[in-house]
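Inverse folding, one chain.
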């Protein structure tokens, strides 16, 4: 019977690079913080603060921002931001996570149902550099994931479909910006839609329902003095009334029906392989199974089986684990099972197949029959230690004599590097 050292050599001999083609070590896309707005009636003060007042906010806006429940509250699983017309003028709300929850590089998204904006309402989901209070704007940098209500949209009769995304920063003591717009196929006040930004050290990209709106290369060679986009930011949600963006600067020019509600179902931050969370909130980040978990694993007291595990990302960007289990049947014949699953926190459930008809040195896919190989749960305490539990299938129990395994300790024997990156793809 082969010992594990001999089996480890067998692991290395298999064409893993071919089998694992298309897997990347980057960006699992796992949610590491979220606000679901599912409890209470007011925002969590550990996360959110309110901007208050009627200063025009640098944009000639007409509303007063308040923290009153008629302007901002949690209701029916939504953050509800309501713009009102009163005898004294307009009121609305603007909330932020400044200093409390910050992020540097991340995938951030919100599911929002916009109000009917026609005409004069200006909703937005955006970020500012967390040093805003020290250096001011635009030195802090600004990333507009979405803003609507633009004067051009009003002119063209597309106000509820016109979506804008823009980056603002300082260059040589001047305000510079870059942005693009997208015209949606439907009015965005009719239903909820997902507005998303993926921010990495090289690129910022925004999306409406996974359709790209805009992208900017923030590498030093492409974006002059873009240091603002390589530091922590905080998020803002608000709905303004009037202002320069809308081109409507007088109260009598505002024709939007009020009360008008911007409904936010959730806000989520996902790890894209570069994400750093910060702020006074210090959110606990769930453990992420990354490339460092990939390798050959075994139990030192059992030479009869071992595992080759690879963790990464599938071609569609979803997290993926591929596990090969090398073991024996009851007669001592070497066999293997192969399976995959989706990492979840510090564990992964693997659905195995038991291929029959494969020969070393010869591969004829038509000769291979794939049988149900049972399921396993692998739970990691760190990148070098785990437990393995297994429920056999009827086939593996009958054919191979496999029995259930409960929390078998595993340790990593050696790492298996991922296939080298395709350097041509970056050109």
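Residues assigned per position:
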């Amino acid at each position: 019977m082969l010992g594990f050292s001999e089996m480890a050599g067998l692991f290395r001999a298999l064409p893993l690079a071919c089998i694992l083609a298309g897997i990347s070590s980057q960006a699992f896309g796992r949610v590491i913080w979220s606000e679901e707005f599912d409890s209470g009636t007011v925002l969590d003060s550990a996360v959110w603060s309110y901007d208050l007042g009627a200063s025009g906010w640098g944009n000639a806006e007409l509303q007063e921002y308040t923290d009153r429940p008629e302007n901002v509250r949690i209701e029916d699983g939504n953050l509800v931001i309501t713009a009102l017309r009163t005898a004294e003028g307009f009121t609305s709300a603007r909330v932020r996570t400044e200093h409390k929850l910050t992020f540097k590089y991340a995938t951030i998204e919100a599911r929002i149902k916009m109000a009917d904006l026609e005409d004069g309402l200006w909703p937005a989901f955006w970020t500012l550099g967390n040093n805003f209070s020290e250096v001011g704007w635009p030195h802090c940098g600004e990333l507009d994931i979405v803003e609507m209500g633009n004067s051009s949209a009003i002119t063209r009769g597309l106000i509820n479909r016109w979506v804008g995304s823009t980056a603002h920063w300082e260059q040589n003591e001047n305000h510079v910006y870059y942005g693009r717009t997208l015209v949606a196929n439907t009015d965005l006040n009719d239903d909820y839609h997902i507005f998303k930004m993926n921010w990495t050290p090289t690129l910022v990209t925004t999306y409406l329902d996974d359709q790209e709106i805009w992208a900017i290369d923030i590498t030093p060679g492409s974006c002059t003095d873009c240091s603002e986009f390589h530091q922590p930011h905080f998020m803002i949600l608000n709905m303004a009334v009037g202002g320069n963006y809308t081109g409507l600067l007088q109260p009598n020019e505002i024709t939007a029906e009020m009360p008008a509600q911007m409904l936010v179902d959730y806000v989520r931050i996902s790890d894209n392989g570069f994400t750093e969370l910060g702020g006074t909130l210090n959110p606990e980040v769930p453990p992420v199974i990354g490339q460092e978990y990939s390798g050959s694993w075994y139990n030192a007291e059992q030479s009869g089986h071992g595992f080759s595990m690879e963790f990464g990302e599938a071609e569609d960007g979803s997290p993926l684990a591929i596990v090969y289990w090398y073991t024996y049947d009851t007669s001592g014949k070497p066999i293997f099972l192969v399976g995959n699953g989706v990492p979840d926190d510090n564990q992964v459930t693997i659905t195995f197949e038991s291929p029959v008809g494969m020969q070393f040195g010869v591969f004829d896919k038509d000769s291979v029959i794939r049988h149900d190989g049972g399921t396993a749960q692998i739970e990691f305490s760190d990148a070098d230690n785990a437990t393995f539990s297994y429920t056999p299938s009827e086939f593996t129990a009958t054919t191979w004599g496999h029995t259930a395994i409960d929390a078998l300790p595993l340790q990593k024997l050696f790492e298996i590097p991922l296939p080298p990156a395709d350097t041509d793809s970056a050109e």
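The chain is about 5% helix and 45% strand. The chain has two domains: 4-25+289-418, 31-278.
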